[in-house]
Queue: 2 jobs
Job 1
Amino acid sequence: MSLAPFVQIVARGKGRARAMTLDEAQEAMTLILQGDAAPEAVGALLMVMRLRGETAEEIAGFTAALRAHVQGSLPKADLDWPSYAAGRSRGAPLFLLAARLVGQAGYTISMHGWNSHQNTDASLRDALGLAGPQVRYSPLESFSPEAFALLRLRDTFGLRSCFNTVLRMWNPSQAPATVQGVFHPSYRSLQAQAAKLLGQRDLTIIKGGGGEFERHPGKNIILFGLRDGTHIQEVAAPVLQATRRLHDVDQTIDLQALWQGSTDDPFAIATITGTAALALWTLKAAPDLQAAQDMADHLWATRHQQESLSA
């Protein structure tokens, strides 16, 4: 089957074009992932959707097709943690240490992604030696070359497509809980709506540093997502009083030294514990946000004791 009918649906013209239904979007993405669609048609579909703006049904349909395409490719985990930010201005991936804290609480984390255009200090893959045994990272290009090829169309278009959003929605480990970071705030609600259509029950989405799930510790953070399948919108209070930028391009953070305790950076530590707290809250490890923050603070303070116990 050709992709042409689906391009016609979205690009027929003013007053005649419409958004795809969930089933139509799933069928269209299935054709694309199977390699049965002409590249010109793929580009036309994705760029028309970008110009018009994608719907929750379309994102859910695309995501359902991707899930079916690679079903069972990754072991199951407790928490899904996508990492697809590509900002040149990102700093050290403090969220990796946040995930390590969550792992020390006894949860398994599936982190997957691909990050382009980042400086060496911001490289997540270069820092994976600090992830800890409970955090498993899966590079996109290795376990789904088809998805990777669609993501890399950004180099051809010069623009991101809705597939960036689909990758955040993916949850290839079938984790019962997921956390997502976005760069553009409008996507928080869109992704929550799409997740509900897909049957996701526990999800937290924030506008994070460079689009990653990494909170600014000195600001109120609006939390979108789902709790037991019901839409939520809550506010996480600041962890400390600070007005600085989350990532200062002139400041280098040594993650190894920070974890070992040979260097002290209260702002970076608050970023780590604040991010871990939101993930723990998503996992229902604590009854409320303050209890989750207390738990994260304790995990940080006792991190070396936990390592000794598990050694």
Job 2
Amino acid sequence: MTPVERAALARALALAARAQPHVSPNPAVGCIVLADGRVVGEGVTEPPPGRHGEVVALAAAGAAAHGATAVVTLEPCAHHGRTPPCTEALLAAGIARVVIAHPDPHPRAGGGAAWLDAAGVAVAGPMDADAPLRQAVARHLEGFLTVVERGRPHVTLKVAETADGAVHHPSGGRWVTGAAARRAVHRWRAAVDGVLVGSGTVLADDPRLDVRAVPTDRQPVAVVLDARLRTPPTAQVVRPGTVLVTLAAGAGHRAGPAPGPATDDDREREDRRRALTAAGVHVLSVPGVPDGHGLALPAALARLAEHGLVSLLAEPGPTLAGALLRAGLVDRLVRHVAVHLGSGAPTALLAPPGADWRLERSGGAGPDAIIQYLATDPATACTTPSPPRKESPDVHRHR
């Protein structure tokens, strides 16, 4: 890869990063067309059902694309869907060389590099896994990659705690951390597809789960895990587009006699279901755990991926947070630490939470510390069996 191509790839990544919130659940792909070292066209994936980044860039380049180089963040797709494969568009335009940052792992859409090579196009890449630019692209594509490789959305878990690890304000205040840390949370919300909590948080705090503290032109989907369908239709989170995941009918019962006639609780749950649906809430049903009344979390997240959510910010209470961690369903842990509250030593909080995590970054927000960790492999921490893997949801470009 030449220095000019490397610079073009950085530009393509910048275009893709800005577009991602608007094209999800599809991956935002940036493409730069170079002719004689000059940029003659650039493009990025359009919102569904729009064009792919390669097609946009080729249209901008026009006749100058013949004999030129296309630099792309993700391997061009080799899949017939709503539109023809990008590999065909590149060949039709007469592209002579394609530089690829990251391979496409999708079982149906991948393989574009081999197709191009077989057609006589010079192909450079995908880049080595440890190359900084490829890692940056992988960070940008983390939602898409997690859905394809794990069958569930990418999950960032945010927790707020005092210096000694308490999750509640010692004097009973509503906020553990300050305004600057809360603005950081809203920036996370603006960047993900959905914000996830449990029904306990809805009942205790009546949150809105929207973006308010920072500018945005889109709102994330509010997601509530609610096994017993306790969310009241009057909750602030109840609005068109909200997703509520609950137990499937007859699921989650302990071993014993078959259920009897419908009880008052059953009828109340069904009344709430109808009211929530009438308010525009998507009520999704999943199996329960075999030994109790809780949701099977792997199945719940897989269902959210099928619904089109590829990235989630989880802001639950300690019970659900712990369950997600124990199940190996957390990809990034973001700890907001009020170092001025509690009696513990703040420096102790800078240590990683365990061997399965590595420090991603640390910094501050006003008087509070923000420490981010990445799971080296979430699946290795899984302590509960997952359901058999289905074929990856077709999130590749949703054509």
